[in-house]
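Reagents: none. Just compute today. NAD(P)/FAD-dependent oxidoreductase.
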Amino acid sequence: MASTRRALVIGTGTGGLASAAFLAKDGFDVLALDADAEIGGYLAPFSKDGFVFDQGLHYVGACRPGQLVHDLLQSLGVDAGELFHELNPDGFDLYRFPDLDVQVCRPLAAYRERLGVLFPEESKGLRHFFGLLDGAARMHDALARGILGRPVLTDLVALTGVPALLQWSQRPLRELIEQSTSDERLRAVLAGQSGAWALPPSRVVGLAALLYMAHFSDGAFFPRGGGGGLRDALVRAAEAKGAQFRTRALVERIETERGRVTGVVLAGGERIEADIVVSAVDPALTLGRLVSASDLPTSLRRKAAVIEPSMATFQIWLGLRRDLRTYGLGAQNVWLYPSYDVEEGFSARFTGKLPPRPMLFLSPTSIKDPSGTLAPEGSSSLVVLTYVPHARFRKWQSLPEAERGPAYAAYRDEIAAWMLKELDARYPGLVGDVVVQAYGTPLTAADRTRAAAGAPFGPAMTLSQWGPKGFRTRTPVTGLYLAGSGVFGGGVAPCLLSGLAASFMAKLAPK
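Predicted 3D structure written out:
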């Protein structure tokens, strides 16, 4: 394409970086803008005292040749085989319940067999559940090949399972699990990955959850250098094609004329003209504040105004002068559930009250990354995460971080103590020799990425917001497109895909 049209990208998270790289590859003159001091959104790491911490990336699927993430990156000149390291294939996720540990392994057949040994009376229910999950995996692979322009005849096999799967686009995951088994322990295991989409089984669309699980059907991976390693690879790919980046550039308004985008206005009044604008920030921000209401249909404005965000997180970043492998952690994620009631871990979303004990997610990033760049030798970096309601922090959200005062700090410390108490009960003595201890609240996420309600996964994947009822790449404003977690969902693969879609649509825009 011999176009010299100017394209602006708002936000440089995974979706924004992918948009910049694909647009530049397609011949656009690209400038990507970020309000923060650093490029990368949730991919941007921070460092302290020799430790490097990730803000949002924990694992990625479909990284083998011929799979979605691998081939999307390959099309940009990024070698995914070199970038990603596979997590423990015999247990890339560990679900730890009060008296049961389950290692999630690859491939799906091996995991199904493992659960069959643990639950010998549940063979019929497992056959039902994994039959649908196998179908979702085939659908995932067929969609990937179609998107990447290389479908094969065997993809027709995936179509035979579509009717059975499509009913779960209108029903929640909990119904599928309850339909499959009455065993409360197996129900909890089948819902064990719920934290990955930040919704309880009763709220997440069944098909969305199945496709997410299917994404890891052939294993899980972590980038060398953590999220920063993936960010840097995408930046290099974009810059190699001529894209430029600018930080501390807060977009206050997307300008239009006669229904067509003409550029953006930054805080302070600077105007930057453009033929194409890709907004890779939250749709609530793009459609609710950056674009004039007069440019959007009433129905779309109302839809943006009532977006239900995914649940917000509270993170503790720990730098420990000890090797956590000697304390039982490995190259895997750990999900700690205080009971077999997975719903309970998300109850605060609806009640505003924290449960007696938190559900915790552990990510020992320095073990997951063999490059040795995330922690000094003999030391470890560890992320401890739980879900909290944004409403508990709302009274401080209008204040700059430095002005939130002692009450905010006290409440932040209270939640951290609550989490660490649970962690010590489940992994006695794990935390010690602490060099760094830092916290990330829902407001931290909103400060750094402009995420609505501090939600790291964008709009919640509920029945009223996912799939056909979600947001599209194209908007009613000619030349304005959406990317990021608000389009296809949260996570690396959906956000990479949103960048490809935005560039494809931009190429079709009338000049």
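The mean pLDDT is 92.
Action item: order primers for follow-up constructs.
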